[in-house]
Amino acid sequence: MNIDVVAALVMGLAGSGHCLAMCGGLAAAMGYQRSPMRLFWYNLGRIISYAIAGFIVAAAFFSISKVHANGLVYLRILAGIMMVLLGLYLFRWNRALLWLEKAGSYLWRYIQPLTQKLPAQKTSGYVFLAGMLWGWLPCGLVYSALTWAALSGDPFSGAGFMLLFGLGTFPAMFLTGVFSQKLATVLQSSSFRWIAGLLLIGYGIATLFIAAKQL
Q1: What InterPro entries does this protein map onto (predicted)?
Q2: What is the model's pTM?
Q3: pLDDT of 181-201, one tens digit each?
């Protein structure tokens, strides 16, 4: 299995508790968790936005491998560092990726007003659109995943990476909303955050070692 595929799923699953706190809280506030279909369409929209972001980022970095022979190796080093920072982020050391979320807030200034203009009726189409809009909410977890999407080599692979990342977050987001709040309690517990954080830090360090050998 390609290491980037593993990275996508690991990041999505490990960050499920963080997703529940952010996107899950929004879904609950808007009443989507009361309906399995609305929750499905909301999360589908969110994941599609991740895939679009992956396409854009991968397209932006596509030329690096053409210009510099070790361009992708340096990007992998960056991705490994971001994985370590993400692990610290899950430890609730928010400063680890706070600077990145502040950078993303500039784009969010233009998107956030659109969420207030959505019609009150919550049809599947509007719920899907709401999910797409909220998928651009500044999030260190998503931005860390995007550094890996940049490594993919082409825009469609970048979109595929972020699609897998989004699918990694989907089970917790959907099952918690539909079946039980006990799952949310487990995923947001300090024990789960420490296990997930240590896993990501270990994965990031291993990635740095692999990239260093390629230089």
Answers
A1: UreH-like_TM_dom
A2: 0.83
A3: 666 677 667 788 888 888 889
